[in-house]
Amino acid sequence: MADYYATLGVSHDASDAEIKRAYRRLARELHPDVNPAEEERFKEVTRAYEVLSDPEKRRIVDLGGDPLGPGGGAGAGAGPFGATGFGGLGDIFDAFFGASAGGATRGPRSRVQPGADALVRVDLDLTDTAFGGEQDIIVDTALLCPACNGDGCAPGTKPETCPTCHGQGEVQQIARSFLGQVITSRPCSRCRGTGSIIPSPCTTCGAEGRVRSRRTLTVTIPAGVADGMRIRLTGEGEVGPGGGRPGDLYLEVHEREHPVFSREGDDLHCEVHLPMTAAALGTSVSLPTLDGEEKLTVRPGTQPGHVVTLHARGVPHLHASGRGDLHVHVKVDIPTRLDAEQERLLRDLAKLRGEENPAATPTTADGQGLFSRLRDAFR
């Protein structure tokens, strides 16, 4: 019985990859086109690879048997390139040339291709993003050619079979190498792989089946969208070559800066400036909101930085019920210039309150005295 491992020069525990590498190396060296005197040895190497590359046949060899029988042949009528032994050599063809040795073809590709998606920026005011509604937008995309309806042919004509590839979409080239005859396939350059040509192209689209056009779309903006979000419009994107199915259109929302409100999620923030007397005595002010003017009550003794929250006066939640809140930040304006009378009155007030010579007391962020916090910590 032949020692197939010794024929390939590998150990009995060699991996499939090691067996394959050994066979490729020997096949290059012993092929009849390269070394005619080694034809018999080339046949032996091919038989050995046929056996050891097949898990079942290799198992038989490892058990002490011979899967090819007493004759040691590759099967009736099968030589080194026979139906049984050609699989291994085909691996070499694929590795060397990137093409099937048998010349298998992929067939013509369709002239009709799907279209790409399109992206359009939409600038909206805060009221538009908050409450939504219909908006007219201008879109510049590829549309189906109205003259040929997408087939790319002039009126009264139609595509014809490509005379170069005879409708196959590919042309084959036969070359001889040291491994024998190799057939490679490549897309037909005349029809670009489609298998057909357009002898009379449409003068409107130049056989593309589509034309670029500007159009106006009326779209619905959902309530609660935010800056940076994208709205998908199915089938409103680019029409593909040959009148192919259009892609989708994405509207990217850009929210313009509002003169009064800043937005954080669905909550709104704004500032209200009050004189120190109004903050001390309390007052009510007219405040603009997304729903119109509202009265804001400021309680007496309101401190700088105090936040008044108006519930459900923010942006509606996207695809859900309810709204965010409006947070009003109170800023107290301290006068920088006083006339003589104003200064006198303030000094009288300070005297009445015992604040003529106030002592500064450091406090923490929560308003508690710093020294009392330290005392409590040591206790």
The rounded Rg comes to: 42 Å
CATH class of the largest domain: Mainly Beta
Sheet with the most strands: spatial strand order = 10-11-15-14
Unreliable residue stretches: 73-104
Mean pLDDT: 84
The CATH architecture term of the largest domain is Ribbon
CATH fold description of the largest domain: Chaperone, DNAj Protein, Chain A
Please write the string of helix (H) and strand (E) elements. HHHHHEHEEEEEEEEEEHEEEEHH
Task: Count up the helices.
Answer: 9
Count of the separate structural domains: 3
Beta content: 25-35%
Give the overall shape, derived from the CA principal axes. Answer: elongated
Task: Briefly say what this structure is.
With 379 residues, the chain is of the alpha+beta class. Helices cover 23% and strands 26% of the residues. The chain is built from nine helices and 15 strands.
Can you put this structure into words, describing what you see?
The chain is α+β, with helices and mostly antiparallel strands. It has three domains: 4-97, Helix Hairpins; 118-255, Chaperone, DNAj Protein, Chain A; 262-334, HSP40/DNAj peptide-binding domain (Sandwich), CATH 2.60.260.20. Helices cover 23% and strands 26% of the residues. The protein is built from nine helices and 15 strands. The chain has helices spanning 4-8, 16-30, 39-52, 55-62, 86-97, 126-131, 276-281, 340-352, 370-378; strands at residues 118-124, 133-144, 160-161, 170-177, 180-187, 196-197, 210-221, 230-233, 249-255, 262-264, 267-275, 283-289, 292-298, 307-310, 326-333. The strands form six sheets. The protein has a four-stranded mixed beta sheet with strand order 10-11-15-14. Strands 1-9-8 form a three-stranded mixed beta sheet. A hairpin with a 2-residue loop joins strand 4 and strand 5 (180-187). The longest helix has 15 residues, at 16-30. The chain is elongated. The N and C termini lie far apart (96 Å). The relative contact order is 0.10. The model is unreliable at 73-104 (pLDDT under 50).
